[in-house]
Design brief:
heterodimer; A: 188 residues; alpha/beta; 4-stranded parallel beta sheet; 3-stranded parallel beta sheet; 44% helix; B: 198 residues; 6-stranded parallel beta sheet; two-stranded antiparallel ribbon; 8 strands; 37% helix; globular
Chain lengths: 188, 198
């Protein structure tokens, strides 16, 4: 049931009636007053990124590296503004030092959305390998993380996880699985 | 390079000069190592943030603070070795143009704290030229201490982000930051008016 709509229009619907995965993510961010969205792009995230850019509620921009984006939302949190970082699996793999030396010890509610590549039809061997490092890194730091596979669970998991990150002052990684998004396949 | 024909200054001395100029609860983010050790030694302020890791992220963290609090001036102090780890951040800042962000680069050409090994940029790269090429048009070398103070004054009222680079000597930091990340973060948030103490 959770079929991605890669080929359809990426324009966000006018609110709660829109049940596409990226619209649910956008509305959940907005409802939780998360307005600063630095990202390193990913093909699957394209409709979400496009709609975030189009919505003046959000300050959405690309960074050169995922670490940089983590630094930005960490500073923003301390200044009283909430943010979230969008990235791909391979980008998460660059973050171990920043998680272990900034987000975790300083108790910063870093909210990460990770578009999962490397599984369920991956065509690039390196992507499949780097994907296998992601959950061991998260587990080694005892970080909260959820792999979201179902559209009907997305809003609950994302909304509750964001609130938990903020109230417990702890990072969270929300992994957007190809079962939710459609992923990236060889013909694309 | 004539851009490097500048006086070799001292990190602790110029940090003290900067702090003495701050009258409006400006935020200051100190990069890893000697940079934040000297910030600490210059006298703790509630608006100081000290990095104990995440080398290279002083400018991105300060950018986040600047985006969250556009009415507050935000300084970031970074070493040359740290900056080399995150040169892409210069372009991000140039694209966003936060006028309240002031970046200060302490350039001694070495990784002082690990044994004074030269950086790959030492003697070949010009960090101000890199900043200018990254789109930060308001970037300059400070010729000496007076020039540094003049550039700070200009940056205080600039309508675009500023980057000031200084050549510094090979001296280690004067103090050592207390390594208590939660307290550092919490006090910084108090200093920025985001939270009240319990």
């Amino acid at each position: 049931m959770a079929i991605a709509e890669q080929k359809t229009s990426s324009q966000a619907g006018p609110g709660s009636g829109d049940k596409r995965w990226h619209s649910i993510v956008l509305q959940t961010l907005k409802r939780n007053e998360i307005s600063l969205i630095p990202y390193v792009p990913d093909r699957v995230l394209t409709p979400l990124i496009k709609n975030l850019h189009a919505d003046p509620f959000f300050t959405t921009f690309a960074t050169a590296r995922e670490e940089e984006a983590v630094g930005i939302v960490s500073g923003a949190w301390m200044g009283g503004r909430r943010g979230a970082v969008l990235m791909q699996t391979s980008g998460f793999a660059t973050l171990a030092n920043t998680l272990a030396s900034l987000a975790v010890p300083y108790q910063i509610p870093l909210i990460m959305f990770v578009s999962e590549r490397g599984t369920l039809g991956e065509f690039n061997y390196g992507q499949s390998l780097v994907c296998r490092t992601m959950r061991p890194v998260l587990d080694s730091l005892a970080l909260e993380h959820h792999t979201i596979t179902r559209l009907d669970e997305l809003e609950f998991i994302a909304d509750r996880s964001i609130k938990q990150a903020v109230t417990t002052q702890a990072p969270v990684a929300l992994i957007l699985n190809p079962l939710l998004t459609g992923g990236k396949t060889f013909d694309k | 390079m004539d851009t490097r024909n500048t006086k070799v200054m001292n990190r602790f001395d110029v940090t003290k000069r900067l702090i003495a100029k701050l009258k409006h609860e400006e935020a200051v983010v100190g990069g890893i190592g000697n940079t934040n050790f000297d910030l600490w030694a210059a006298g703790h302020r509630p608006q100081n943030f000290y990095m104990l890791g995440s080398m290279g992220l002083a400018f991105p963290i300060a950018l986040g603070v600047a985006l969250a609090q556009p009415d507050r001036r935000v300084f970031a102090l970074e070493g040359d070795g740290s900056l080399l780890m995150q040169l892409g951040a210069l372009s991000t800042i140039a694209a966003l143009k936060p006028k309240n962000l002031i970046m200060i680069v302490m350039d001694n050409g070495i990784y002082q704290i690990t044994g004074a090994q030269p950086t790959p940029a030492a003697g070949v790269a010009d960090l101000v030229a890199i900043a200018l090429g990254s789109g930060l048009t308001n970037s300059a070398w400070a010729a000496d201490e007076d020039d540094f103070e003049r550039l700070i004054d200009e940056a205080m009222s600039a309508d675009e982000p500023s980057l000031i680079a200084l050549r510094i000597d090979d001296k280690p930091g004067v103090g050592a930051t207390r390594r208590d990340p939660v307290q550092i973060r919490e006090r910084f948030m108090h200093g920025l008016g985001v939270r009240e103490p319990l």
